Amino acid sequence: MNLPELDPVIHAQARLRVVAALSTLGEGDRLSFPRLQEILGMTAGNLSVHLRKLEDAGYVEVTKTHHGRTPATLLRLSRRGRLAFEEYTTAVRMLLDGHDVARESTHD
Amino acid sequence: MDDPRTTTEEDLPPASPAESLRLIREQRAETARSLTPDPRLVYWPWSVSWLVGFGAFFLRYGSDGDGLVAMPDWVPMVTLFTLMTLALVTMTIELRRAARQVAGESSTKGAMYGIAWMVAFASLGVTGGYLSDYLPPAQVGLFWSASSIGIVAVLYIAGAAIYPDRTMFALGCWLAIVNIAGVVAGPGWHALIISLAGGGGGLVLGFVAWLRLARHR
Questions:
Q1: Which of B24, B165, B213 best probes binding to A when mutated, by most A CB atoms within 10 angstroms?
Q2: How many angstroms separate the CA atoms of B210 and B171, rounded?
């Protein structure tokens, strides 16, 4: 299926899951890298690759900090990332409404 | 929790718009379940402590000081405080698990809310410890039970406003109502009402909150 109007940064299974997970956080909150990794069940290397792409697009804010002597990486969606996720969800819903809804959602 | 999919496969777009929405819905639900404390571990230990602890008080002393079941004087008090301590520990562990490695506003809110509990019970402990000597013996137990359940009710309502959480609000209001009803009914009856209505209500609402979370979409 060709869906050129969907944001290619988000329209990939792994990054969609990353963005969806981060979208549940409160606006003032950040999630650590290991906790996000645990929630998503991805390898650290894999998650880093996708986070890099999301960071390059300006969708995810990465903060390096320290808990005592241990370095910690904290993550959250940027304002732009939240907006992109909302636009993506709206676009997908519109596409779905335009298709045969019954056929598309038989497994739901 | 190893993900067998490779980076290449995960780079592929979802197969259809319906698949995209399913991924979003499932991932958000799974994340919410991880970040939200399990209501069963937050409410049930307290509910059981009230059901059993206040139940033991009523069985020992009844409504007029003559109990229905013979047991040493210390049994109800030790039972109640042991169970409440276990409930506090269980709840604290679960709240910390859910808040683990989340930084920002919600952890600040959680810390302040935790301080509110400590301040409330420290104030009650000092005030009650001072006033207990001046109360008739029959009223001392009622004073401690009613004021601590009243504090829990108020803090549940405040917590509901902070998080926000409608189940917690419902439980706070329910506890406040049955607590006042129990005080009006008098010593003994208060223990019975808190045991059945407070403990039972907590068990039911904990179950409702858990069902909501499990079906979170």
A1: B24
A2: 14
In this complex, the residue of A17, A76, A96 whose CB is nearest that of residue B17 is A96
Nearest residue on chain B to A46, alpha-carbon basis: B7
Fold of A13-99: Arc Repressor Mutant, subunit A (1.10.10)
Q: What is the pTM of this model?
A: 0.80
Indicate the residue of B13, B16, B104 with minimum beta-carbon distance to A104: B16
Find the domain containing B112 and state its range: 35-214
Write out pLDDT tens, residues B59-101.
998 888 778 888 888 899 899 989 999 998 999 899 889 988 8
CB A51 within 8 A of CB A9: no
Q: How far apart are CA B40 and CA B166, in angstroms?
A: 15
- Partner A, chain B 102-131, Cβ-Cβ below 8 Å: 102-107
Q: A 88-107 residues with CB below 8 A of B?
A: 88-89, 92-93, 95-96, 99, 104-105, 107
Q: What are the boundaries of each domain within chain A?
A: 13-99
Query: Is residue B75 a part of any domain in this protein?
Result: yes
The ipTM, to two decimals, is: 0.84
Question: A55-102, pLDDT tens digit by residue?
Answer: 999 999 999 988 788 888 999 999 999 999 999 999 999 888 876 544
Tally the domains of chain B: 1
Q: Please name the member of B3, B30, B100 whose beta carbon is closest to the beta carbon of A42.
A: B3
For the sheet containing B102-104, what is the strand order? A60-67, A70-77, A29-32, B102-104
B52 close to B203: Cβ distance less than 8 angstroms: no
Low-confidence ranges of chain B (pLDDT < 70): 1-10, 216-217
